[in-house]
Amino acid sequence: MGATAEPVTKALAVHSAPDLSANANARPVPRYTSYPTAPNFSLAVNADVHAGWLNALPAHAAVSLYVHVPFCVELCHYCGCNTHATRRQEPVERYVENLLTEIALVARHSGARKVNRIHWGGGTPSIIGADGFRRIHRAMAKHFDIDGMVEHAIEIDPRRIDAAILDSLAAIGVDRANLGVQVFSAAVQRAIGRVQPFEVVEAATSLVRKTGIRNIGIDLMYGLPHQTVEDVRFSATLGARLHPQRVAIFGYAHVPWFKKQQKLIDASALPDAGQRYRQAIAAHESWCELGYEAVGIDHFVLPGDGLAVAAKKGRLHRNFQGYTDDESPVLIGLGASAISRFPQGYAQNHSATATYSAEVRYGKLATAKGAALTAEDSLRAEIIERLMCNFRVDIDRLVEKHRLPTIFSRELARIDLLAVQGLARRSGRRVEITNTGKPFARVVASVFDHYLEGSGTRHSMAI
Ligand code: SF4
């Protein structure tokens, strides 16, 4: 088994629908944007540990920055992000001040200066306004080396941008914008509390392009209340008229015990596991028919896009934003709830904006928790990442790389059970997810999750 991914457009060419009604494969599992996953983070990783990891970064290391803006004008019912609604500018302005302080603090601890990528997410980043972007960017330029960056990306709510904000984004070098679309069906938009007709999204997309930000992606969803396979196909047809370079399609995760606003969603209107499966397949077929290549479990890109190239070379990675071709092992998260990734582990800031702000104003890193990776964690993390990115993994090669003689006999026996169902196959310790199994990649990956059993954490549906 080589490192090269299977031609991505063939990814789901075969998909005899498994019976999901009583199928354990529809069970909730993590999305594996990290391993260990965030519910397994502990208080053992505190500000001192975080500072030590920053300090240990070699001077020549290039890092990526993620800036989290946890504010929206109003909350969409389906939202799973760390954000809160505000129509007042004061809390946002105070937050910008705290980000400025945090950038200086992190830079004081960090051994590395060179930044290759910046990603603004939220929440609704544009809520900080043109002046907020300029001030934060100036602080980054003062404390880090941000000349010659590879990518500067932002998440955009098509309802909340204007020419002034876009001009400020272009001025600070933003070159990639990801627009939150979710769905174009008016009935589903009403059911999720996010009404944005196609014309609004089209106007926003064209404004972004006119500003000179050429790399445009859109986020879509399936599994929403009242959503049907026809809605999924309709969203693909209209979405393609925006000519996005990248499309991400996420299954709605209904976790009202964790995200209170989701209680506004009528659970009886949610598609069941079988319908979700058919919607995921319909999305896949629609975008492949439109000429896009499937990358990983939920991304579709134009041929030649960086993600497609990375997938073919076996260099696709998974981070908190989903799939990426970012090769840096270091991501520094800024803002409330932001997670930093280091070779030694993960460190997450306090999610409550008030606690985050108090810590930063006190001159401390706002670290709340995290995970220090054991050697076995690192090995399992790479196995899971390869399965999620390449749909295959050569365990012997990784065991040798990590110099950890781990047996995995229990895991391989479970892979054999999945093989009986046609979801995976293996040759010795080479594991591959079949075309039928690709929609269940999270289930196959979860076999190697040491923390999953007995964790008591409730995750979203596997598909
Ligand atoms: S889905 Fe996006 S815009 Fe809606 S509340 Fe969540 S972060 Fe804000």
The total number of structural domains is: 2
Instruction: State the name of the first-level CATH class of the largest domain.
Output: Alpha Beta
Which structural category fits the helices and strands?
A: alpha/beta
Bound molecules: iron/sulfur cluster
Looking at this structure, what is the CATH superfamily of the largest domain?
tm_1862 like domain
Give average pLDDT, whole number. Answer: 92
User: How much strand?
Assistant: 15-25%
Instruction: Let me know the largest β-sheet.
Output: 9 strands, mixed
**Helical content (DSSP H or I, runs of 4+):** 25-40%
Number of strands: 19
| Overall morphology | globular
Structure description:
Helix content is 34%, strand content 19%. With 463 residues, it is an alpha/beta fold. It has 2 domains: 8-30 and 374-446, Arc Repressor Mutant, subunit A; 38-372, pyruvate-formate lyase- activating enzyme (Alpha-Beta Horseshoe), CATH 3.80.30. A 9-stranded mixed beta sheet has the order 9-10-8-7-6-5-4-1-13, sandwiched between helices. The chain has a 3-stranded antiparallel beta sheet with strand order 14-15-16, covered by helices on one side. A 3-stranded antiparallel beta sheet has the order 17-19-18. A hairpin with a 2-residue loop joins strand 14 and strand 15 (345-349). The structure holds iron/sulfur cluster.
